[in-house]
Amino acid sequence: xxxxxxxxxxxxxxxxxxxxxxxxxxxxxxxxxxxxxxxxxxxxxxxxxxxxxxxxxxxxxxxxxxxxxxxxxx
Length: 74
Description:
Layout: H1 2-9, E1 17-19, H2 27-35, E2 39-41, E3 49-50, E4 53-54, H3 55-58
Parallel strand pairs: 1-2
Antiparallel strand pairs: 3-4
């Protein structure tokens, strides 16, 4: 996350999207990207939860073609 903060403040990077490997998406990182008003693209590991549902229950095959969004729960 420090790299993103440094890129934004020091290098004035302002991307529309952040592309990352499935290793990286974690709630803390995705919230930081959203705070910067950036979007992200990544494959999500099957053990992750989206809106309280495991990804493997949404996609019953290896490469899904679904798209959606996360809903923030307070």
